[in-house]
């Protein structure tokens, strides 16, 4: 079994992403996900304990919905210990952000860099970013590429921030820009394929 942790700050779209990965859809009539799906709450308390999800769509893989960083522990180190991030429990990490890389996500990414753990960074809410751009008469492609370039730059700076001299750490990541609710838009198709076929 490959244990994949979907992790990030609170309310970034982690649970939604898991449901899309496992193809659990909101029912048109009830407006709800099926019972087996990851829990998405519109308001109130967030995911508080790691919850495993799997189905035949991703054979041999368990996807873990992790509590939002800072929604549960006050310190990053406490979070890393409590949820066994630095142990062998998880084989791979999918870090979820909905905008820029915030302090919490940055802290986590630095941990992964330190351990030379490859990871996927998933930027959700790209649909909203594009919509905003359109109001400012920006082309979809330009907005998309702008977000991508900024994130690569931020990731590069993060890599340098603990290895400033020659950046000798071997950093491996993939970046995906998605609408967390859509399986066939933006980079989601590639993400689904990569999770299925390309996990290290
Ligand atoms: N427009 C848009 N909405 C999204 C996207 N991803 C998630 N959402 C919405 O964002 C809200 C929060 O999503 P969740 O999946 O609950 O986020 P989470 O990170 O699991 O949140 P916590 O477990 O509470 O920390 C929900 O209303 C989702 O429908 C996206 O890519 N685009
Ligand atoms: Mg959640």
Q: Could you please say which CATH topology applies here?
A: Rossmann fold
Number of strands: 6
- What's the story with the biggest beta sheet? 6 strands, mixed
The overall average pLDDT, rounded, is 90
Radius of gyration: 17 Å
Helix content: 25-40%
N-to-C CA distance: 12 Å
- In CATH, the architecture is 3-Layer(aba) Sandwich
Net shape: globular
Model regions low in confidence, pLDDT < 50 over at least 5 residues = none
**Which kinds of small molecule does this entry bind, naming each only once?**
guanosine-5'-triphosphate, magnesium ion
Multimeric status of the protein:
single chain
Give me a quick take on this structure.
With 200 residues, the chain is of the alpha/beta class. The protein has one domain (2-197): P-loop containing nucleotide triphosphate hydrolases (Rossmann fold, 3-Layer(aba) Sandwich), CATH 3.40.50.300.
Structural write-up:
The protein is α/β, with parallel strands linked by helices. The chain has a single domain (2-197), classed as 3-Layer(aba) Sandwich (Rossmann fold), CATH 3.40.50. 34% of the residues lie in helices and 16% in strands. It contains six helices and six strands; from the N terminus they run βαββαβαβααβα. A hairpin with a 7-residue loop joins strand 2 and strand 3. 32% of the residues are buried. The model has no long low-confidence stretch (mean pLDDT 90). The structure holds guanosine-5'-triphosphate and magnesium ion. Guanosine-5'-triphosphate (GTP) binds at residues 10-16, 40, 42, 46-47, 68, 71, 124-125, 127-128, 179-181.
